Automatic annotation (TrEMBL), chain A:
<keyword id="KW-0812">Transmembrane</keyword>
<dbReference type="InterPro" id="IPR000515">
    <property type="entry name" value="MetI-like"/>
</dbReference>
<dbReference type="GO" id="GO:0005886">
    <property type="term" value="C:plasma membrane"/>
</dbReference>
<feature type="transmembrane region" description="Helical">
    <location>
        <begin position="171"/>
        <end position="196"/>
    </location>
</feature>
<dbReference type="Pfam" id="PF00528">
    <property type="entry name" value="BPD_transp_1"/>
</dbReference>
<keyword id="KW-0813">Transport</keyword>
<comment type="similarity">
    <text>Belongs to the binding-protein-dependent transport system permease family.</text>
</comment>
<keyword id="KW-0472">Membrane</keyword>
<keyword id="KW-1133">Transmembrane helix</keyword>
From TrEMBL, chain B:
<dbReference type="InterPro" id="IPR006311">
    <property type="entry name" value="TAT_signal"/>
</dbReference>
<dbReference type="Pfam" id="PF13416">
    <property type="entry name" value="SBP_bac_8"/>
</dbReference>
<dbReference type="InterPro" id="IPR050490">
    <property type="entry name" value="Bact_solute-bd_prot1"/>
</dbReference>
<keyword id="KW-0732">Signal</keyword>
<keyword id="KW-0813">Transport</keyword>
<protein>
    <submittedName>
        <fullName>Putative aldouronate transport system substrate-binding protein</fullName>
    </submittedName>
</protein>
<comment type="similarity">
    <text>Belongs to the bacterial solute-binding protein 1 family.</text>
</comment>
<dbReference type="InterPro" id="IPR006059">
    <property type="entry name" value="SBP"/>
</dbReference>
Length: 314, 541
């Protein structure tokens, strides 16, 4: 009812009246919008190089048009492109299954801690890795698990067989996933913890009065309370689901080889920035972006069908 | 590194602006010379005029470098005028050593500015990162006055044509005599600076000094009782490596698999081989399978640092300096650099291995690439060509001059201590002088290490030993469009496979089919283009 009357009110006001009414809010939004336009929308124009035989030293204007030629690697299924796509999809699946739920579980675990003090300390420690750059994280893993690292040094000095973890192409996807979990799980709990604190404690009391066990409470009180935020984050995640980590991978690519480590982002980099095939790289990047947008819109639609709010309402 | 407004907004906005206005940057190009072999051949290369009469203690030949046991006393100040024009000059380069202190804290840099008569603003990146930085700066349209351009740069001729000054008028033939130290660079190095029918850069000559063979820590080998290692074949060599490995103590013989060395042992040619006008890539040589197999054996035998495949060059250098590895494969330039970076004290001693055949006999070492890089001057530079060439000329002052003494060793007292006539570098000297000026231009390397006459002696000895057996890259100075455009990409696939084979993740038998793919995806075209260029050059003679 309330919403409907609001809508009617909005319809009565003209655009000019509404702008006038919201002028302060709009003013607040201006700097942010300008930033987004300047650094996100204007550079989008550069995607035009996907249709050009772009040479950086000639500039966009000076390079020749090449039509859809750059997209040939995608349409004709260039093996290097397909390999990158395959690895990207594998990592997307792994990340959706293992990385995405990890912070939810951790948030539930933290939430179940009774001592506020321990909870705070644990949180601080868990947030820390997020602030390290990938260079540091990769170096840390290398120092701990590498061939000349702490673990293998210990094994060697005790005459035990060494473990080939870093630089082992068979374990690479697992290694990448573990590194992400180690680095970002703690940080990602913030939103879930916030959502958990919003759940009315009376609901728990009521449930326990009705004889619900801790598991039952989790299922019937906690999870419904978290559902909105989980769906929202999942949709947002889908948008960059084809972005499976660039810096992290490029830093470790040399050792494991491109067969397992080339993903769409490194393909764009290796072909564009390094190989000089800027046009092809841009074409692949463009298609990747479009796939991301389609995924977000589709997932949002599905969320609406199930009565959830999704990223934005209709 | 100064971040100007231009470099900040460079990438996206400038590009977008060009797109909107649609102004083709090349519109005003009057002389439309193609980068054809014929046009390049027509260029009269700078006349070689040898400078000075300093007599080397260890005389070189056309191939072997001159060696000096002492720095000449009372070096001549050869250039009296300051080359600069008073305005800051920007320069972008890689640096091989540690990051030096910034300009305001670097007395060498300040003294250099003073001597040049222009502030030299240098934007640096480590050797590992320079190609990325270079590509990004080009894409951002933000190039300095003086540009260190790697010879492997994609589409080099077109890049130079669009962005660099044509120096033909100033350098061709006798014109170069105006810049006596540039004239002192042998003609063969200028061949690599000719593109689009003109001279588009100044060479940073290497050649023999870049010849790359195993360097070993003679002090560490001596501690094991090995005084003059000269493996007779691969088996011998592997035994030597095993002797120098003590994995339990975290010591491995090698920083990485010396695949180039194994290839030389297996009689694989240097890049491209030419026979009767027909070119063969080194990838195609039969010896590759043996070399890869040998490399695999080394990995299996555990003589290679287990982190070698993920390590960067800078890390490998630390292993060698720190004694974690006793072998590294590198050049004479790196040999000197190791002495600069030495942290192991006075005992530190490096030497180089000769190349035996895999199964005995003597193999043919590969002559180093002629150029480290081409130094070009930006078309957009506000400085005159003459000023920039005068700076390059100053940087090419050869061994024995006062300029050389300063540019390599800095100021007496702070950067070096004079021992007789030898400028023995201090720690400060090594760190502060490492700002990459040698990549603006350089004289041919003189074999010399201040206060350590045994270094040039060892270097000279190994050069004399290998000189007659050197194999040259037949493609030097010949241009292939496909190699320039797709070379990095298609070679990258093979490098990747090499690593996988060496690690035992893929069989050696994968090599041959991969080379077939390489040939069909560009290699064959490169061959054709090189052959055409070679034929044109032969016809023009």
């Amino acid at each position: 009812m309330l919403q409907r009357s609001k809508t009617r009110q909005q319809q009565q006001l003209s655009l000019g009246q509404r702008l006038l009414r919201d002028k302060v809010l709009l003013l607040f939004a201006l700097p942010g919008t300008a930033l987004i336009v300047a650094f996100h929308y204007v550079p989008l124009l550069g995607n035009v190089i996907a249709f050009k035989d772009y040479q950086p030293f000639l500039g966009i204007g000076g390079s020749d048009w090449s039509g859809w030629e750059n997209f040939a690697v995608i349409f004709n299924g260039d093996p290097a492109f397909l390999r990158a796509l395959k690895n990207t999809l594998i990592l997307t699946c792994l990340q959706s299954i293992f990385v995405f739920p990890a912070p939810i579980l951790l948030a539930l675990l933290l939430n179940s801690l009774f001592s506020e003090r321990i909870k705070r300390i644990a949180q601080s420690i868990l947030y820390l890795p997020h602030f390290m750059s990938w260079v540091i994280v990769v170096a840390l893993f290398q120092q701990m698990l590498g061939g000349g690292g702490l673990l293998n040094n210990y094994l060697r000095s005790h005459d035990l067989a060494t473990l080939d973890i870093i630089g082992n192409s068979e374990l690479f996807h697992v290694l990448l996933t573990s590194q992400i979990i180690w680095k970002d799980t703690g940080w990602a709990t913030i939103l879930f913890l916030a959502a958990l604190s919003q759940i009315d404690s009376q609901l728990y009391e009521a449930a326990s009065v009705d004889g619900a066990s801790r598991m039952r409470q989790l299922w019937h009180v906690t999870m419904p309370g978290l559902r909105g935020i989980i769906i929202l984050l999942f949709i947002l995640r889908l948008g960059d689901s084809l972005t499976v980590g660039f810096e992290q991978i490029i830093l470790q690519q040399q050792a494991v080889g491109r067969d397992v480590s080339e993903v769409l982002d490194t393909y764009v980099y290796n072909n564009g920035v390094i190989g000089g095939a800027w046009g092809v790289a841009a074409a692949v990047g463009l298609v990747k972006g479009i796939v991301g947008v389609v995924l977000v819109l589709a997932a949002n639609k599905v969320a609406h069908i199930f009565g959830e709010q999704g990223v934005y309402s209709r | 590194m100064p971040v100007s407004r231009r470099s900040f907004l460079g990438g996206g906005l400038a590009a977008a602006a060009v797109a909107v206005t649609g102004t083709p940057l090349l519109a005003g190009c009057a002389s439309d010379k193609k980068n054809s072999a014929a046009a390049n051949l027509a260029v009269k290369l700078p006349t070689y005029v040898k400078y000075g009469e300093i007599k080397p203690d260890l005389p070189g030949t056309d191939v072997v470098l001159d060696g000096f046991l002492k720095y000449p006393a009372n070096p001549v100040k050869a250039i009296t005028d300051k080359p600069g024009d008073g305005q800051p000059i920007t320069f972008m380069t890689n640096i091989p050593g540690a990051i030096p202190p910034a300009e305001d804290k670097n007395q060498f840099w300040q003294a250099l500015n003073d001597r040049l008569g222009s502030e030299l603003q240098i934007s640096m990146a480590s050797n590992d990162e320079y190609p990325d930085k270079f590509a990004t700066r080009v894409a951002g349209g933000d190039l300095p006055d003086i540009i260190n351009i790697p010879t492997t740069t994609v589409q080099l001729p077109a890049l130079l044509k669009a962005k660099a000054m044509d120096l033909t008028e100033q350098l061709s033939g006798d014109a170069v005599k105006k810049y006596p130290f540039l004239a002192n660079i042998p003609t063969v190095y200028w061949k690599g600076c000719v593109f689009n029918g003109g001279i588009y850069g100044v060479p940073v000559p290497r050649g023999m000094s870049r010849t790359t063979l195993p360097l070993y820590r003679a002090d560490l080998l001596a501690a094991k009782g090995i005084s003059n290692p000269a493996p007779k074949n691969f088996e011998d060599f592997l035994a030597l490596c095993q002797e120098m490995t003590a994995a339990r103590e975290n010591r491995w013989a090698w920083t990485r698999v010396p695949l180039a060395y194994l290839r030389q042992m297996a009689d694989v040619p240097n890049q491209w081989k030419e026979e009767g006008g027909k070119f063969t890539s080194f990838y195609e040589a039969e010896g590759n399978a043996d070399a890869l197999e040998a490399g695999r054996k080394m990995v299996e035998a555990g003589v290679i640092n287990p982190d070698s495949f993920s390590a960067k060059a800078s890390q490998r250098k630390q292993w060698f300096n720190g004694g974690i590895a006793s072998f590294d494969i590198d050049s004479f330039v790196a040999w000197n650099q190791y002495y600069s970076d030495n942290t192991a004290g006075d005992a530190f001693s490096v030497n180089m291995l000769d190349v035996p055949g895999l199964n005995g006999g003597q193999a043919k070492p590969w002559m180093g690439a002629a150029l480290n890089n081409v130094t070009a001057f930006s078309k957009d530079s506000k400085h005159s060509v003459d000023t920039l060439l005068k700076i390059a000329n100053w940087m090419a002052a050869p061994f024995g001059t006062e300029e050389y003494l300063f540019r390599k060793y800095g100021l007496e007292g702070r950067h070096y201590a004079l021992q007789g006539s030898d400028p023995v570098p201090t720690k400060t000297g090594i760190v502060e002088t490492g700002i990459g000026t040698q990549y603006i231009s350089d004289s041919a390397l003189a074999l010399y290490w201040p206060g350590k006459p045994d270094v040039p002696q060892k270097q000279h000895a190994i050069q004399e030993k290998i000189a007659s057996r050197l194999q040259y890259d037949a493609s030097y100075g010949l241009y292939s469009e496909t190699m320039s455009k797709d070379g990095a990409r298609i070679n990258g696939v093979l490098t990747d496979l090499e690593n996988q084979i060496l690690q035992g993740k893929k069989p050696v038998s994968d090599w041959a089919p991969a080379v077939k793919t390489w040939l069909s995806s560009g290699g064959e075209k490169i061959r054709g283009e090189l052959q055409d260029a070679f034929a044109a050059a032969a016809g023009g003679k």
